[in-house]
């Protein structure tokens, strides 16, 4: 940051009485400093007093201090336009500036007074003050003049010059991270025979004056300090400051007071350093340490202020939560009332249900007693019948044994050899028939068990295959529904925004890019769907159908073997044979429908190919314009607009074809011919039950016929 140094007359003998030489000081200037307005107005009043008579001038500020304050308030004009560049001051380039003291031309002696140039005074709000506690641009400070005197022409010209300066950046000030510049030491360079200061903003920059000061200057400095403090209103107890918060008011007051102390303290250090360098350096270090000590207080104030703000925010949030809890309690209370009403209603219904249940229990108890009586009666009747059966069996065995003994005696007595042979043949034939009946029953049981296992295996395999096919078809339907919905959306957009009343309106770049991306995504989804009808996916489905056919062949052969052993007496096949043939035909039709669906022969594959070809013819050339959508012609968008309804119809047609068992080369099947796997599973289960019951029935009939034959033979 540029700094301003104030001129002072050259070093000369120390005059007696009131001194007319001025003591230089260092001040940094800013364009929007409120303290600068106070100093300007003070200078205006001083300029008026300077025009008075010599007798009245003794009651005002001496000429040197007047010159210092005047130089502070009137910075030289800066360039109104163009970038800021460093300009070096030349010795004779500025009129009215005092000559630099010789001490600053010698590096060794200049190093002893380094504390005077390292920490210059600044009135722009920068420096080591407490301005870091709040945003410098949060509010606009309202400046009020201290005196009612009218500014001079020179002050007006200076103000207009400062207000007309071009800003350092085009970024608005409210977005600055750091709002105030820092204070740097005076920058200087050594010429061939002298040492000059750097001047980057064309300000009045000179080294501090090394002319000794007397008692009158100190007294006058004290008067100036008291006057500035009084004008700033530091000692007033009821000062009115308008700020967004208390911390801003406190900072505003402390900042003004600190600037005054900084100016006076710097001048006092300069005066002491002229008399004794070490004492001035010690005083500068003491000032620096005291500034560091006071710097801790605002930080603690800021910490307390932040804690207070956090506590207030916490209180607000807790208050909001309390209000929310109150509202929630009210809602819960209303819900509790509703629950109580519902509980009363449910209690009444429960009492009614309990009464009905008690009545039903009484009826059930009566029925149970009646059932117990019936059961006892049944047991009695059963025991009686069992006794009769046992008695009849005993009688039959008795008569059979008696008849057998009588027949043997008759045969032996009469020597009936033919009857004997017939009797022995009957015994042997009976054993053979019974053996074959047992063998037939065991073979039937074994084959039926294998049939049951094979059919269950086939049913599980076809159920898994059906789930896979349905999952694939659902995925295809979802993709086509997305495509259809997006196409309808873009067609509506083109109809409402682009092609309105047969006029073309330019499409936005973002919308054009979105349309092209959707075209590419549609093409990718259609390519994925088309790949399902070729390659490994189709081969896997064909293998699954082939495995199902092999399992079907196994239980079909077992069923034929079982049914061949159970022909009717007239030689005609069993009725289960026709049911098995019908079942096999139905299963073949079901597998054929699955084959059409997985291979796309129901029209899906051809429809996807046609749809993809039409979409690719337009999307491939237009997708190349993704990064330059403005190059797309009206004809391209018109073609897309007219093709969208056709593509929508094709996608809807594909949605209808997916899952359809019809062939694309044949007319639509009747609803009765469209098979569902659940119906086929029921038919298969019914056939297994029928063949099982049929074989058992045939075995029982054979046993009865054998017994009847034995009885007839015995009667014979």
Task: Tell me what the structure shows.
The chain is mainly alpha-helical and 716 residues long. The protein folds into three domains: 4-14 and 22-275, no CATH class; 304-415; 429-715, no CATH class. 67% of the residues lie in helices and 3% in strands. It is built from 16 helices and eight strands. The protein has helices at residues 34-50, 54-57, 63-73, 107-112, 114-118, 153-163, 215-232, 246-275, 277-414, 417-498, 509-531, 536-564, 575-599, 604-623, 634-657, 677-715, and strands at residues 4-5, 26-28, 87-88, 121-122, 188-190, 195-199, 499-500, 503-504. The strands form three sheets. A three-stranded mixed β-sheet has the order 1-2-4. Strand 7 (499-500) and strand 8 form a beta hairpin. Helix 8 crosses helix 9 and helix 12 runs antiparallel to helix 13. It is elongated, with a radius of gyration of 58 Å. The model is unreliable at 1-59, 71-95 and 135-166 (pLDDT under 50).
Short summary:
By secondary structure, the protein is an all-alpha fold. Helix 10 runs antiparallel to helix 16. It has 16 helices and 8 strands.
List the helices and strands and how they pair.
Layout: E1 4-5, E2 26-28, H1 34-50, H2 54-57, H3 63-73, E3 87-88, H4 107-112, H5 114-118, E4 121-122, H6 153-163, E5 188-190, E6 195-199, H7 215-232, H8 246-275, H9 277-414, H10 417-498, E7 499-500, E8 503-504, H11 509-531, H12 536-564, H13 575-599, H14 604-623, H15 634-657, H16 677-715
Parallel strand pairs: 2-4
Antiparallel strand pairs: 1-2, 3-6, 5-6, 7-8
Keywords: Coiled coil
Region (Disordered): 1-23
Protein name: Axonemal dynein light chain domain containing 1
């Amino acid at each position: 940051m540029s700094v301003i140094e104030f001129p002072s007359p050259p070093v000369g003998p120390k005059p007696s009485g009131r001194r007319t030489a001025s003591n230089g000081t260092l001040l940094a200037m800013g364009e929007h400093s409120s303290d600068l307005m106070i100093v300007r107005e003070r200078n205006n009043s001083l300029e008026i007093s300077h025009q008075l008579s010599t007798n009245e001038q003794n009651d005002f500020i001496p000429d040197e201090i007047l010159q210092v304050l005047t130089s502070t308030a009137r910075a030289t004009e800066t360039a109104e336009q163009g970038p800021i560049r460093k300009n070096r001051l030349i010795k004779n380039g500025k009129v009215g500036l005092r000559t630099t003291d010789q001490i600053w031309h010698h590096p060794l002696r200049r190093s002893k007074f380094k504390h005077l140039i390292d920490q210059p005074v600044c009135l722009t709000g920068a420096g080591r003050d407490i301005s870091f506690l709040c945003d410098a641009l949060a509010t606009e400070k309202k400046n009020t003049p201290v005196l009612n005197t009218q500014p001079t022409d020179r002050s007006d010209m200076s103000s207009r010059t400062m207000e007309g300066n071009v800003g350092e950046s085009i970024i608005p000030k409210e977005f600055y991270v750091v709002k105030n510049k820092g204070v740097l030491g005076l920058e200087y360079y050594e010429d061939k025979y002298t040492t000059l200061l750097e001047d980057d903003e064309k300000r009045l920059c000179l080294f501090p004056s090394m002319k000794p000061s007397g008692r009158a200057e100190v007294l006058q400095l004290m008067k100036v300090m008291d006057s500035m403090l009084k004008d700033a209103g530091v000692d007033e107890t009821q000062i009115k400051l308008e700020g967004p918060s208390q911390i801003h008011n406190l900072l505003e007051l402390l900042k003004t007071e600190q600037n005054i102390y900084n100016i006076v303290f710097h001048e006092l250090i300069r005066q002491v350093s002229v008399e004794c360098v070490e004492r001035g350096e010690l005083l500068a270090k003491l000032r620096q340490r005291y500034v560091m000590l006071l710097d801790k207080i605002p930080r603690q104030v800021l910490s307390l202020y932040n804690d207070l703000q956090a506590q207030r925010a916490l209180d607000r949030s807790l208050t909001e939560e309390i209000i929310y809890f109150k509202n929630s309690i009210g809602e819960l209370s209303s819900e509790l009332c509703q629950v109580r009403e519902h509980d009363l209603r449910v209690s009444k219904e429960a009492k009614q249900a309990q009464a009905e249940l008690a009545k039903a229990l009484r009826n059930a108890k009566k029925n149970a007693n009646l059932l117990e009586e019936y059961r006892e009666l049944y047991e009695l009747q059963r025991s009686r019948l069992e006794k009769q059966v046992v008695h009849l069996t005993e009688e039959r065995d008795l008569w059979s044994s008696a008849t057998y003994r009588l027949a043997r005696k008759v045969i032996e007595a009469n020597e009936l050899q033919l009857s004997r042979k017939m009797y022995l043949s009957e015994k042997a034939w009976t054993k053979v028939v019974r053996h074959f009946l047992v063998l037939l029953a065991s073979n039937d049981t074994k084959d039926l068990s294998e049939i049951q296992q094979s059919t269950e295996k086939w049913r599980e395999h076809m159920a898994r295959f059906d789930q896979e096919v349905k999952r694939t078809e659902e995925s295809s339907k979802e993709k086509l529904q997305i495509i259809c919905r997006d196409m309808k959306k873009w067609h509506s957009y083109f109809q409402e925004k682009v092609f309105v009343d047969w006029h073309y309106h330019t499409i936005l770049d973002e919308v054009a890019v979105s349309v092209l991306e959707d075209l590419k995504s549609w093409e990718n989804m259609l390519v994925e769907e088309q790949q399902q009808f070729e390659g490994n996916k189709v081969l896997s489905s064909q293998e699954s159908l082939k495995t199902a056919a092999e399992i079907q062949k196994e239980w079909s052969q077992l069923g034929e073997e079982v049914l061949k052993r159970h022909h009717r007496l007239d030689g005609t096949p069993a009725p289960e044979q026709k049911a098995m043939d019908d079942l096999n035909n139905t299963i073949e039709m079901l597998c054929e429908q699955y084959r059409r669906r997985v291979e796309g022969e129901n029209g899906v594959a051809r429809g996807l190919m046609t749809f993809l070809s039409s979409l690719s013819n337009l999307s491939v050339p237009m997708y190349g314009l993704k990064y330059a959508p403005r190059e797309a012609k009206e004809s391209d968008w018109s073609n897309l607009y007219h093709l969208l309804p056709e593509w929508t119809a094709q996608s809807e047609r594909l949605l209808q074809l997916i899952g359809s068992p019809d062939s694309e080369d044949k007319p639509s099947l009747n609803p009765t011919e469209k098979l569902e796997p659940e119906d086929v599973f029921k038919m298969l289960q019914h056939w297994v039950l029928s063949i099982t019951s049929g074989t058992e029935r045939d075995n029982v009939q054979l046993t009865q016929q054998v017994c009847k034959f034995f009885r007839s033979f015995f009667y014979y």
